[in-house]
Amino acid sequence: TDQYVVIGNPIAHSRSPSIHQQFAALTSQSMAYERCLSPLEAFEATLHQLRLQGIRGANVTVPFKLQAAELAHWRDPRVTLAQAANTLVFEPNGQIRAYNTDGLGLVRDIAINAKTHITGQHLLLLGAGGAAAGALAPLIEQQPASIAIANRTQAKAQELVQRHQALAQQWGVPMQALALESVDSHALPRIDIVINATASSLQQASLPIKRLDQLLNPEALVYDMMYGPAAAPFLSWAQQQCPQVHLRDGLGMLVEQAAEAFAIWRGVRPPSADVLQALRQEIS
Ligand code: ATR
């Protein structure tokens, strides 16, 4: 049986084993998928040990995505842009290939599961850390009308925009970086899709954005990359100000990024919508 793991710290609450085990059952793939807790200072040693154990592939989560990108022997262009990897392939010759499926997972969840067009829409991405970086290239490739990236530390948003400038020009997508405090309806077009990629909910902090109702299209999609209770503060804050918006947490993104990883490893696309439905019931 081919062995796979998800590496993180903490890792106990990861849903990835359950998701991949369901994918494997539904596609008749013979594989095992387990959690792997890596010591914070020993990610490289963890990779080495997994290689000795003959592991075929790994998902990587917080806080190791950056190191995973750095340590790989080959990087998908998306990994280079995001400077983060969430999917590793261990080659028989000992080499490690790195991919990032987070952004594609987000795009598939919005476009397919939530049936919301990204093409031609005005996007606002909140945050400029690893989560935001992973999402940006696939969002650009959907050709939205514009993408604004707002971050507490504006310089990080600027850096992210600069790194993606060539890709954005190639797809004809205007991008701008701004500080969270300067997000208002004068600085931006009416936003159709706002995506929270900040860790503010984890710190019980609210975002310093005023007059969300003036900023958003009344029927905008308000998306949080976190799922379940972690997404609730942001989503309910948005709903209080804009009762007609569509709310969506990141559970679908989690399942879809897993489906992309599964397809890379096994060459088979799993029925992700079915697994998302089952997981949604399990959680609520
Ligand atoms: P992740 O991999 O989850 O993106 P990260 O790289 O540490 O984690 O990035 C965290 C993101 O959440 C950043 O955009 C961070 O803003 P800064 O770049 O200014 O640090 C944002 N963030 C964290 N706490 C926040 C808060 N209380 N208010 C607003 N933004 C916050």
Number of strands: 12
Shape by Cα distribution: globular
H/E series: EHEHEHEHEEHEHEHHEEHEHEHH
Query: Percent of residues in beta strands?
Result: 15-25%
CATH architecture of the largest domain: 3-Layer(aba) Sandwich
Radius of gyration: 19 Å
CATH superfamily of the largest domain: NAD(P)-binding Rossmann-like Domain
Secondary structure category = alpha/beta
- Sheet of most strands: 6 strands, mixed
Give the fraction of residues assigned to helices.
Answer: 40-55%
Order of strands, widest sheet: 2-1-3-5-6-4
The domain tally reads: 2
CATH topology heading of the largest domain = Rossmann fold
Give start-end ranges of low-pLDDT stretches.
Answer: none
Count of alpha and pi helical runs: 12
Distance between the termini: 33 Å
* The top level CATH class name of the largest domain: Alpha Beta
Bound molecules: 2'-monophosphoadenosine-5'-diphosphate
**Mean pLDDT value:** 96
Secondary structure elements and pairings:
Blueprint lengths: L1 E7 L7 H12 L3 E7 L5 H10 L4 E4 L4 H7 L2 E2 L1 H6 L4 E4 L5 E4 L2 H12 L8 E5 L3 H11 L5 E6 L2 H10 L1 H6 L4 E5 L11 E6 L15 H4 E9 L7 H10 L4 E3 L2 H16 L5 H12 L1
Parallel strand pairs: 1-2, 1-3, 4-6, 7-8, 7-10, 8-9, 10-11, 11-12
Antiparallel strand pairs: 3-5, 5-6
Helix pairs in contact: 1-11, 5-6, 5-11, 11-12
This protein binds 2'-monophosphoadenosine-5'-diphosphate.
Task: Put the structure in a nutshell.
The protein is of the alpha/beta class and 284 residues long. The protein has helices spanning 16-27, 43-52, 65-71, 77-82, 102-113, 130-140, 154-163, 165-170, 212-215, 232-241, 251-266, 272-283; strands spanning 2-8, 31-37, 57-60, 74-75, 87-90, 96-99, 122-126, 146-151, 175-179, 191-196, 216-224, 246-248.
